[in-house]
UniProtKB/TrEMBL annotation:
Highest taxon of the lineage: Bacteria
Keyword check for Transcription regulation: yes
Record InterPro entries: HTH_LacI (IPR000843), LacI/GalR-like_sensor (IPR046335), Lambda_DNA-bd_dom_sf (IPR010982), Peripla_BP_I (IPR028082)
Molecular function, one GO term: transcription cis-regulatory region binding
Keyword entries, A-Z: DNA-binding, Transcription, Transcription regulation
Full protein name: LacI family transcriptional regulator
Species the sequence originates in: Bifidobacterium reuteri
Amino acid sequence: MEARIAQVAVKAGVSIATVSRAFAKPDLVSPKTRKRVYEAAESLNYSISRSATAMKTGHSFRIALLVSEDIATWFNSRLFSGLNAVLSTAGYDIVIYQIETPEERRGFFETLPVRRNADAVIVSSFAIEADETRRLRSVGVPIIGINPPVPNVCDASIRIDDRGGMRQMVEYLISLGHTDIAYISPVITTRLSHSAEARALGFRDACASASTSIRSRELFFDERSDSSMEQLADRIVDLGEDMPTALCCYADLGALPLAFALQRRRIDIPGRISLAGFDDATYSAQYGLTTMHQDPRRLGTLAARRTLDLIGDESVQESSASEREHDVSSAIDETNRHIVVNLELMPRLTTGYPIRR
């Protein structure tokens, strides 16, 4: 026979209200107390209807995560891991929506207020519009941005500085003596605006502000093609003596296959050409790729905590001690709702001093 809530409360040594809160809003109950309640409930074979709790509290216990790429990508999979580590503990499920066009994005924001089947929306790495934010605010659903191109459109955001990070990388290459540098990026084929597009601006910033004259170039490839990096490597090799001494890739997922393609063409890295990436993605450290390190899982945990704050109508004026750690920048706005997480330059084996011509 299934136990009643009062029996669980007695066994756990807490009030009936605390037992109810542990299931309805677990983020408001301390981990130690929550554990006692759950253990007591399990030992007594007590269960609670999630749908009944949702009706009573007005919460769906679902968080909508909007991504523009497959969830299995390096960034998204680690981001999801960080989000889930916090949100699942608090009793929330994450529902993933892959958004690839502005029409799909607008459709989502038009229908969500009607369905009201999410307590918050997390948008990863692409831009949303102000009217979409207002639409959700009207029904009390907050929007949290992760690497949003325009942070202030969101109710809260956690991001890296794509532009500043790429500028730091290029300045590092210039400090090694490189004055002929090419920026490698894909041709933009999506109509959504993505945060990584700002990295090209950082490249231009560093070249324009250098104390010495820099020859800068931008080389593009079509990432939809299976042989895009082979074709790009051929174009670079065909430059002969006009080949740049350093290549700065928009992301490691472009830098690594390009490195392999160049080495198959007997181009020594970093002897003939230095190569740098951005992200510190899978296998970058093992290969020895110079890159900018970011931690998507950390972004996810920070964003999840912000999400719980906003769902609970709790103040986010005071940041937790964990958010004052070394990897969180002082670039925090007055309300502490928009946080910039530090990047770290990782000088490795693929960059060196330029050869003399």
